[in-house]
Amino acid sequence: MRRILLAMAVAALMAVMAASSAAAQEGEPIGSCPPDYNLFTVAFVHEHVEIPNGEPSWDPNGDGYTCVKFIANDAQGGPPGEGQRVAIVDNSRPL
After folding, report:
1. Which strands sit side by side in the sheet containing 84-90, from one edge to the other?
2. Which of 18, 30, 50, 92 could form a disulfide with 63 if both were Cys (CB 3.0 to 4.6 A apart)?
3. pTM, whole model, 2 decimals?
4. Per-residue pLDDT reduced to its tens digit, 23-66
């Protein structure tokens, strides 16, 4: 039951983030994301994604966008259904 609730919460968060990031675009991104990553504005990620290990450099190319990948905690050897982790890289792949 806990896994189902977590999956539903993650799906809802991703839907909100996708809709909000599309609406919040100020300029065009100058690069794309690696496979399995999603493109968001840096401001949106900073506001909505909790980063427990401090704030990395999210936007080395300076276009205002970054790429986020959501990783289930149990996929990384953690307890099943106990949250998730994120990987953040800049959108530096050629368009």
Report:
1. 38-41, 65-72, 84-90
2. 30
3. 0.61
4. 444 689 999 999 999 999 989 988 888 776 666 677 999 999 99
